[in-house]
Amino acid sequence: MARPEMELILNQVKQELRQNADEKLKKSGARFFKEDVKMYGMKTALGLQIGKKYWQKIKDQNKSAIFALCEELWKSGYMEESFIASNWAYCLRERYEEKDFAIFEKWIKNYVSNWASCDTLCNHTVGIFIEKYPKYLTNLKKWAKSKNRWVKRASAVTLIIPARQGKFLTDVFDIANLLLLDEDDLVQKGYGWLLKTASQAHQTEVFNFVMKNKNKMSRTALRYAIEKMPPDLRAKAMAK
């Protein structure tokens, strides 16, 4: 497929998203964000359905060409386009190579502007890359020291799916420790969510971590971390 044809598909995706934009859904969706978020206004499932339709037309193309399309979607700033870009990148998971990490990192640093785009990209796309190439866990710990709130959140939420499977517990705690005193509530919620997910496979270890650090971590992160624990453990963790 030649470049003009790929550009045509990109334009068709954007046109279809515009045609399905709903001002009422746009207004109701905005209440989930503290910051201004650029969106068309539609149910997530519909946006992904549009993306899947066009994926069928591009799926056999060169990976770099598909990543280039994804980047154009990211550049628009529209949340729904970021969801499609993340999903297309995830669909390439069987073709991931180590060099792809730089692409994902670029998207997070340059284009992610809200928690929904951050989580959609990181939970699955970047998360499965880390499972395939775990040596890049070191890079996640570098992200945790970033000044960019979305990069810091990404360091935690990238491990949500692996942590649910009981993987990378030491790294989960390393990242939580790096983010422990962060004052940004979306970063606090990110690492609290990671601890909560890890507790499903390692309840005792996560509880012990929380008890050790409960006087330092924010109440927001603490509440997230213990949400799935039994009532008696939650009471102990919340006690002053």
Describe this structure in words.
The chain is mainly α. It has two domains: about 100 residues; about 130 residues, Leucine-rich Repeat Variant. About 70% of the residues lie in helices and about 0% in strands. It contains 15 helices and no strands. Helix 7 crosses helix 9. The chain is globular. The mean pLDDT is about 95.
Entry summary:
The chain has 240 residues and is an all-alpha fold. Helices cover 70% and strands 0% of the residues.
Number of helices: 15
CATH class of the largest domain equals: Mainly Alpha
Output the structural class: mainly alpha
Major β-sheet profile: none
Number of domains: 2
Can you tell me the CATH topology of the largest domain? Leucine-rich Repeat Variant
Q: Give the distance, in angstroms, between the N- and C-terminal Cα atoms.
A: 63 Å
Total strand count, please? 0
How helical, in percent, are the residues?
over 70%
Q: What would the average pLDDT be, to the nearest integer?
A: 96
Q: What would you say the CATH architecture of the largest domain is? A: Alpha Horseshoe
The gross shape turns out to be globular
Percentage beta strand: under 5%
- Low-confidence spans: pLDDT under 50, at least 5 residues? none
Alpha-carbon Rg, integer? 19 Å
- Order of secondary-structure elements: HHHHHHHHHHHHHHH
Question: What are its keywords?
Answer:
2 domains; Leucine-rich Repeat Variant; mainly alpha
Summarize the SSE layout with pairings.
Elements: H1 3-19, H2 23-30, H3 44-58, H4 63-75, H5 79-91, H6 100-110, H7 115-132, H8 137-143, H9 149-157, H10 160-164, H11 169-179, H12 185-199, H13 203-213, H14 219-226, H15 231-238
Helix pairs in contact: 1-3, 1-4, 3-5, 4-5, 5-7, 7-9, 8-9, 9-12, 11-12, 12-13, 12-14, 14-15
